[in-house]
């Protein structure tokens, strides 16, 4: 499998997907994607993952831009496969570290010693100018983390969706592209039913996403949704029933 894919390139603007795994744990883990947005002499790194892949990802990023020129490192939520290497990246770069304010105080448990580097996102998210475009932090709370965001890049029209859109064991994960949504859908269902908190939050996220022109949805796990498949995913996700709707199945029935 190609571990590096250019998703968008136009002029000085480029988006790259890396698919780097901890090879010792590869058989026991979800496939993981990391992303880089480059605009001229500046960059945003998205969900860089754990310490196990830090060196490999650093070297991969360096093929596109000097890592010391990364302006922001965005963590969609607090999980170790997203933020586990926050301390290493804080030492290797001068980037600002962007994460939900709900999790900023927990990052010391990953070894981060300089909390002044953190931009703590408010619940409603926000917009940051990025060269001649912008990046938008879109609330994705309780999908699955209670403090969770997606990132939208206005130039490429790519939505980096974090765990939303993750697939388990789909054959279409091998080429990192969803060719047919209906054949991919069964591999989405169990993950989203268990990890998404409630349909209320699914609908709120889709409603917010539809404010933007989205050509590609790029999840942290699994495969890319492009064009019609992206639209099909949003229509499906809008009706996903999560933990709240399946709560009775998570507990043993009362026994008198």
Short description:
This protein is of the alpha/beta class.
How many structural domains in the coordinates? Answer: 1
The total beta strand count reads 13
Low confidence ranges: none
Distance between the termini: 54 Å
Give the number of helices.
7
Estimated helix fraction: 10-25%
The main sheet orders its strands as 1-2-3-4-5-6-7
Using the coordinates shown, work out and report the CATH topology: Metallo-beta-lactamase, Chain A
- In CATH terms, what is the architecture? 4-Layer Sandwich
Series of H and E elements: EEEEHEHHEEEEEEHHHEEH
Summarize the biggest pleated sheet: 7 strands, mixed
Give me the CATH superfamily: Ribonuclease Z/Hydroxyacylglutathione hydrolase-like
The coarse silhouette is globular
Strand-pairing-aware structural class: alpha/beta
Rg, rounded, reads 18 Å
Mean pLDDT over all positions? 93
The CATH class is Alpha Beta
Strand content: 25-35%
Q: If you had to describe this structure to a student in words, what would you say it looks like?
A:
With 256 residues, the chain is an alpha/beta fold. The chain has one domain (4-250): Ribonuclease Z/Hydroxyacylglutathione hydrolase-like (Metallo-beta-lactamase, Chain A, 4-Layer Sandwich). The chain is 21% helix and 26% strand. The protein contains seven helices and 13 strands. The protein has helices at 54-62, 80-83, 86-92, 181-184, 186-195, 199-209, 228-237; strands at 4-10, 13-18, 34-39, 42-46, 70-74, 96-100, 118-121, 126-130, 133-139, 149-153, 158-162, 216-219, 225-226. Strands 1-2-3-4-5-6-7 form a seven-stranded mixed beta sheet, covered by helices on one side. Strands 8-9-10-11-12-13 form a six-stranded mixed beta sheet, covered by helices on one side. The relative contact order is 0.13.
């Amino acid at each position: 499998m190609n571990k590096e894919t250019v998703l968008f390139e136009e002029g000085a603007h480029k988006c790259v997907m890396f698919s780097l795994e901890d090879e010792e744990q590869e058989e026991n883990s979800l496939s993981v994607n990391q992303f880089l947005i480059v605009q001229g002499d500046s960059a945003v790194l998205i969900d860089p993952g754990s310490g196990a892949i830090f060196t490999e990802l650093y070297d991969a990023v360096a093929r596109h831009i000097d890592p010391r020129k990364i302006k922001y490192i965005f963590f969609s939520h607090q999980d170790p496969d997203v933020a586990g290497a926050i301390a290493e990246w804080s030492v290797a770069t001068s980037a600002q570290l962007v994460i939900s304010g709900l999790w900023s105080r927990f990052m010391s448990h990953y070894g981060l010693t300089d909390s002044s580097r953190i931009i703590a996102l408010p619940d409603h998210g926000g917009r940051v100018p990025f060269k001649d475009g912008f990046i938008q932090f879109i609330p994705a709370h309780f999908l699955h983390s209670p403090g969770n965001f997606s990132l939208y890049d206005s130039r490429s029209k790519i939505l980096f969706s974090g765990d939303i859109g993750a697939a388990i064991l789909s054959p279409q994960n091998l080429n990192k592209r969803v060719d047919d949504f209906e054949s991919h859908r069964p591999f989405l269902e169990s993950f989203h039913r268990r990890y998404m908190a409630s349909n209320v939050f699914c609908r709120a996220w889709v409603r917010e996403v539809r404010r933007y022109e989205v050509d590609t949805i790029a999840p942290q796990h699994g495969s890319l949704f492009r064009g019609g498949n992206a639209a099909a995913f949003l229509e499906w996700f809008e009706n996903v029933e999560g933990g709240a709707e399946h709560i009775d199945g998570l507990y043993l029935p009362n026994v008198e």
